[in-house]
Design a protein that fits this description.
With about 160 residues, the chain is of the alpha/beta class. The protein is built from four helices and five strands. About 40% of the residues are buried.
C-alpha cells in the first residue's frame, strides 16, 4: 500500500474520531476497507456513551457493520484502520473476524493490547494474527486524545 493510500484512509478514521469527540465520546475512529477493491465498507467512532454499551468501541462497530454487509462472521480480505492501538476486547474481535491487516495511529501504553499490554496476537491461544502496522498519523491521533482528556480533567 502506498503512503498516500494509508494516510487517506487514516484521515477518514480521524474524521470519525473527531465526530466521536464532538459526541463527548473518547475520540477513537475506525474504518474497514475491502483490501481487494479499496472500498470503505464501514466507518465509525466510539459510541459507548451514546449506546450505553461498553463494547461499542469504534473497532467493534465497524467489524459488526462489515460482517453484516458481507453476510459472514469472518472477513479475511478486509483491513482495519483505527486511530488508537486496539484494546484486548477489540484485538479478540479482530482475531475472530480474521481481519487481514490492522493499521493503527497512536500507541496506547495503558489500554493497548497489540504492542503494549497483553500483546494479544502473540499469545499461543490467539486463533488468527493479522498483519500489524502502526504510526500512520500517530502524532495527530495522540494529540487529539491527550487534548480530549486534558479538557475533561479541567471540568
Amino acid at each position: 500500500m502506498s503512503d498516500e493510500y494509508e494516510h487517506r484512509l487514516m484521515s477518514v478514521a480521524m474524521e470519525e474520531a473527531i465526530k466521536a469527540k464532538n459526541r463527548n465520546e473518547v475520540p477513537v475512529g475506525a474504518v474497514i476497507v475491502n483490501s481487494k477493491t479499496g472500498e470503505i465498507v464501514a466507518k465509525n467512532g466510539n459510541r459507548t456513551i451514546q449506546l450505553n454499551d461498553p463494547s461499542a468501541h469504534a473497532e467493534i462497530l465497524v467489524i459488526r457493520e462489515a460482517c453484516d454487509k458481507v453476510g459472514a462472521q469472518r472477513i479475511p480480505e478486509f483491513d482495519l484502520y483505527v486511530t488508537l492501538e486496539p484494546c484486548t476486547m477489540c484485538a479478540g474481535a479482530i482475531s475472530f473476524a480474521r481481519i487481514r491487516r490492522i493499521i493503527f495511529a497512536a500507541f496506547d501504553e495503558k489500554g493497548g493490547a497489540v504492542v503494549n499490554g497483553v500483546r494479544f496476537f502473540e499469545q499461543k491461544t490467539c486463533h488468527h494474527k493479522p498483519e500489524v502496522n502502526y504510526s500512520v498519523k500517530g502524532e495527530e491521533a495522540g494529540k487529539l486524545l491527550k487534548d480530549f482528556f486534558k479538557e475533561k480533567r479541567k471540568k
